[in-house]
Amino acid sequence: MKNTIEKIPPQQQGKQPGSEKDMYPKPVYDDGKPGSGKLQGKVAVITGGDSGIGRAVAISFAKEGADIAIVYLDEHEDAKETKAAIQQYGVRTILLSTDIAQEENCKNVVEETLDQLGHIDILVNNAAVQFPQQGAEHIQQDDLLQTFRVNLFAPFYLVKHAIPHLKEGSCIINTTSVTAYKGNASLIDYSATKGALVSFTRSLAQSLMKRRIRVNAVAPGPVWTPLIPASFTPEKVQEFGKDTMYHRPAQPVEIAPCYVFLASGDSTFITGQVLHPNGGFIVNG
């Protein structure tokens, strides 16, 4: 399996959060290595699990024995491909197509997972949108609200409705971003949501420690996912990730091990923390 991306040709998709089937080169989401049963018997809910980082995490969790609820918007073809990849590892998988920007839908995700898979042990808040603009004065209200609804409000809603059903040893993992620490001139509102997720993670970890539920986050740098061609111009896509020490973006499969570590018994003394698979950016926090 080749992780590295030699060259990204110019490309663009017209709709967020983007479709993996239309990307080239295709992202790598499975390294072909076997799991070791670290999540055997667990049930994980993964938002944005149809593609990108979410798909890689879903595959990695499945290899470790977890049953998976894939939550996605409307990228049905990507979701079916992810489900097929997961099922080869002999675990149960359900697909939940919904708009998590609405609280009622987040409540339904929790209830449907409980109904079909029996319990919830791991919640991965991974879904996100971004609408690049050159300056705050150009950010439209609708885009601002949608960015916060998907990136920040949805994790709140899902946590709110999942907490009553989480038991001791359960965990929550939020996907933040390197932009929460170093900022991004064209992603001001997106960066703000990711910064808020860091504070949300730390505060929630303190709140849930009395129940021995751990809360952590992962802050990736540039990763080759559908959100990139769905967000940027073809010229920017071609240059994406070249500012890392590796001079390339990560493949989703290179980010997924962070989530396996945080979800497993290997990290029982870790909560309120953020892992930084960002390609060499130096950040504080």
| pLDDT < 50 stretches | none
Give the strand tally: 7
H-E order: EHEHEHEHEHHEHHE
Alpha carbon gap, first and last residue = 32 Å
Largest sheet entry: 7 strands, parallel
Protein model, in words:
Strand 4, helix 4 and strand 5 (171-175) form a beta-alpha-beta unit. A seven-stranded parallel sheet has the order 3-2-1-4-5-6-7, sandwiched between helices. Helix 3 packs parallel to helix 4. The protein has eight helices and seven strands. By secondary structure, it is of the alpha/beta class. The relative contact order is 0.18. It has helices at 52-63, 76-87, 103-117, 141-162, 179-182, 188-208, 234-239, 252-263, and strands at residues 43-47, 67-72, 93-97, 122-125, 171-175, 214-218, 274-275. The two termini are 32 Å apart.
Brief summary of the model shown:
The chain is of the alpha/beta class. It has helices at 52-63, 76-87, 103-117, 141-162, 179-182, 188-208, 234-239, 252-263; strands at 43-47, 67-72, 93-97, 122-125, 171-175, 214-218, 274-275.
Descriptive keywords:
alpha/beta, 8 helices, 285 residues, 36% helix, seven-stranded parallel beta sheet
Q: What's the arrangement of secondary structure elements?
A:
Blueprint: E1 43-47, H1 52-63, E2 67-72, H2 76-87, E3 93-97, H3 103-117, E4 122-125, H4 141-162, E5 171-175, H5 179-182, H6 188-208, E6 214-218, H7 234-239, H8 252-263, E7 274-275
Parallel strand pairs: 1-2, 1-4, 2-3, 4-5, 5-6, 6-7
Helix pairs in contact: 1-2, 1-8, 3-4, 4-6
